[in-house]
Amino acid sequence: MKRRKFLKNIGKISAAPILLNGVGLQAMSDSSMLNFLTTCIGVGDRSIVVLFLKGGNDGLNTIIPIDQYSTYIGHRPTIGLPDSGAGAYINLDTTLSITDQVGIHPAMANFKSMYEAGKARMIQAVGYPTFNQSHFGSSDLWLGGRDGSQGVGASGDGWIGRFFENAYPGIHSNPNIEFPDPLGVQLGDRKASLAFHDCSSVYEAVNISGQDPAALYGLLNGLGTAPHDTPLASEYGYEIDYITDVENSTNVYGQRITDVYNAGTNSNVVYPNSSLGNQLTTVAKLLSGGSKTKVFQLHRGGFDTHSNQVVAGSTSTGNHANLLSDVFNSIKAFHDDLTNLGVGNKVVTVVFSEFSRRITENGSIGTDHGNYGPMFIFGDAVEPGISGTNFDLTAINGSGNMNVSEMQYDYRSVLKTLLQDWMGAGSDILIPTQLDSYPLISGLIESNEVVDPSCYLGSTAPLPIELKYFEAYLNDEQKVELEWATSSEIDTQYFEIIRQQDNEEILISRVEAKGDNITTQVYDAIDENPLIGISYYKLRSVDIDGAEQHSDWHAIEIKEVQIEHIKIYPNPAIYDFNLVLTTSQSRIAILEMFDFSGKMVRSVPLNIEEGFNKFRVEVADLPIGQYIVKINSEEFDIAPLQVLVNR
Q1: Max mean pLDDT range (35-39, 564-568, 571-575)
Q2: What is the DSSP letter of 160?
Q3: 571 lies in some domain
Q4: 165 and 73 share a domain?
Q5: SS (H, E, C) 389-429
Q6: Same domain, yes or no, for 577 and 521?
Q7: Which of 88-92, 230-234, 589-593 has maximum average pLDDT?
Q8: Is residue 332 a part of any domain in this protein?
Q9: Which member of 361, 490, 517, 597 has the greatest number of CB atoms within 10 A?
Q10: What is the dihedral of CA 415, 418, 419, 423, to 10 degrees?
Q11: Beta carbons within 8 Å of 292's beta carbon, 6+ residues apart
C-alpha cells in the first residue's frame, strides 16, 4: 500500500486505546512513534557475523552442478567426488529443476540440515570485476569493498569501518549508556582486519583473538604504554600510532566485554573442538550476555589446498573435507545455540573466501588459485534457497579458471543487501560506505524481516517542519515520483525537489507549502525526464525568512536495457540446450528457432529478469542439423545465434 492510501485510511481506524506492555497508547495519537513500536522492534538489536575462509575455498568440490557431472569429473579425475556409493555427494534439493540441482560435499550434511530447516541460503558464482588471484590482494579487495579495477591498496579503509563511521557516528571508543559495546569485535586472527578501518584509518573494532574474554579486563588493566603526543613522520611512526590506537580501543571496552561475557551463557549444544568452534562459542555467549556489537568478524584458515586436498582413492576424505566439516558443523552448532538462548532472530552469518579454486585439478592432488565461488548466508531471518544457477563448466579459459561471463553476482551486492535489508542502512549510509550503486539481491532476507525504510539507521538535520517521510520511487512509466508528508508546519513557505547527478544539482520542482498547521499534509511531485544512471533526490524546505534545511538523499537508478552476455550451451546439443544471458532490466521476450529452410520449429516465451537468466530448450524431437535462434523483444537487439543438433 502506498503511504498516501494509508494516510487516507487513518480516519477509518478506531480511536480505542492500545496496550503495549501494559502502557496505554491512543491509536494514531503519535503515528511516527506507533510506527516505530510496531515495525522497528528489534532492528536496533541486530548483528552480522562475518566468517572469512582464508586461503581460497574450493567452490567446485563444495558445490557440484549435478547436470554437468560428467564434465566435472573430466576436469577432476583424481580429486572429484563420486556420484554414488561411499563418499558420494549429497543432492541438496531434489525439488529443483535438474539444471539447477547441486551436489554438496558429504562433509556438509549440516548445511543441508539448516537449508531444510529454512535457515540457510547459497549464492552461486560470486566475485568482482578484474579478479585478483593473490591471497593478499584479493583479501584486501573483499575486505575493502573494492574490485581489481581500482587496484589493491588503493585505500586503507574497509566496508565495515565505513559503515560504522556513517551509521554510528561518534560511538567508536566512546561508550555510553545506550551503546556501551564496541561496534565491532574480531576473533581468530591477531592481525587487525582491514574491513574495520574507517576513512581516517581508525580501527573501528576490538580484537580479542587469543584472549579469554572473561579475563580480558584484568589483562588489559595491567598493560600500559608511554603516550606520545606527536606522531612520528615515518612508516615506523604510523605503525606505532596504529598499534596504540588498537590497544586504546581495547582498553576502553575491556571491562564491558568481561562483564558481558560473564553475564552470558551457552546452551547444551556441543561445538566442534576447534578454533572456529571456540570463536563462535564466544560470540554466542557475548550475545546472550547482552552485547550490542553490530559486526563480529571471524576467521578459519587452511583453505589453500594446492596439494593433498583429498585422500587419493577416497576423495570425500582429507584436508578439504575436514575444513568443510569444521565450518558447517560449527555454524550449525552456533545457530542452534542462539535459538536455544532466545537470540536466534538477532543474527545473520555470512561466509565467504577470497577466491575459489580452478575448475581443473593440478598434478598434486589439489587445486590452484581460481576466481568466482559460492557465498553462504545463515540465520532465522534468512530466506532459504539458492540465488543464481549452475555455471557452465565448459566456459573456462586456458588456465582452467571460469570465464568472466560466468560471474553471476558481485559480492558487494550481497553486502549491500545485508546492510540495507537486515541492518537498516539507507542510501545516506550506503553511499559513503561505497555500496549504494550495486543492485540488491532479492530473497536473501525473509520479506517480513526486511527493514522498512521508515526504520533505517541515521538521521539528518530536522527540517523547519516536522517531516513524517520523504520518498522517491520509479513508477511503471520509468518516471520518478516524489512524495512527502508533514505532521506540522510553522512559517514554511515552499518546498523544492533537488536532483543531483555527477555533482551537478538542478531544481526539479517547487511546491508551495499549505501554511501553518498541526495536521498531516501530504505533497507530491514528479520528475518527468529522469536521467539514465544513478541520480540522487532531496527535499529542501524554505521558511518565510529564507532559512532552509534539507532532507537526506534518495538514490534512484535507471538502467539502459542491454545484454551484457548471451550464450548457448552445450553446442552441439543432443537432447536440449541452455540459453544464458544477463540483462540490466526485466523484460518479456520470445525465443524463436528456425531450420535452414526458414521454417520455425520452436517458439518459447521468455520471462527475462534483471541479472542472470538461464532457459532450457528441448530439441530431442528435432532432426540433426544446424538451426538459427532469435530472441525477439522490442527492447533487445540481439544478433541471431546458431546451434547444432547432433546425436
Answers
A1: 571-575
A2: H
A3: yes
A4: yes
A5: CCCCCCCECCCCCECHHHCCEEHHHHHHHHHHHHCCCCHHH
A6: no
A7: 88-92
A8: yes
A9: 361
A10: -160
A11: 45, 179, 180, 181
What HEC string does 140-154 produce? HHHHHCCCHHHCCCC
Residues facing 102 on adjacent strands: 65
Does 35 map to a domain?
A: no
C-alpha cell at 356: 575459489
Cis before 384 (ω within 30): no
CATH number at residue 481: 2.60.40.10
Contact 92, 104 (CB under 8 A): yes
Of 10-19, 46-55, 256-265, 435-444, which gets the smallest average pLDDT?
Answer: 10-19
Confidence of residue 194 (pLDDT cuts 50, 70, 90): very high
DSSP E strands, 29-92:
47-53, 63-65, 90-91
| Residues 175 and 79 grouped into a single domain | yes
Final residue of a structural domain among 430, 449, 468: 449
Among 270, 273, 297, 269, smallest CA distance to 283 is for: 297
Grid cell of 171 as nine digits: 560511538
Number of domains in the chain: 3
Q: Residue 77: exposed, middle, or buried by beta-carbon count in 10 A (0-12, 13-18, 19+)?
A: exposed
Burial, 370: exposed, middle or buried (Cβ in 10 Å; 0-12, 13-18, 19+)?
A: buried
Q: Which domain holds residue 492?
A: 460-558
Beta bridge partners of 590: 605, 632
pLDDT tens for 461-516 read 444 567 888 888 888 777 899 999 887 787 888 999 999 887 788 999 999 988 77
Task: Assess whether 138 and 161 both reside in one domain.
Answer: yes
Q: In terms of domains, do 534 and 627 share one? A: no
Strands, E assignment, 401-530: 409-410, 466-474, 480-488, 492-501, 504-512, 521-527
> Are 549 and 571 in the same domain?
no
- Shared domain for 360 and 489, answered yes or no, is no
Tell me how far apart the alpha carbons of residues 347 and 264 are, in angstroms, rounded to a whole number.
Answer: 16
* Residue where the block lists cell 600510532: 241
CB 548 within 8 A of CB 542: yes
Q: pLDDT for 320-341, tens place per residue?
A: 999 999 999 999 999 999 999 9
* Residue after which a domain boundary falls, among 428, 449, 470: 449
Q: What pLDDT, in 10s, does the model give residues 580-597?
A: 988 877 778 899 999 988
Nearest Cα neighbor of 479 from 405, 553, 545, 531 is: 531
Closest to 57 (Cα-Cα) out of 128, 105, 112, 5: 105
Q: Give the sheet arrangement for strand 63-65, strand by strand.
A: 63-65, 102-104, 90-91
Same domain? 113 vs 189: yes
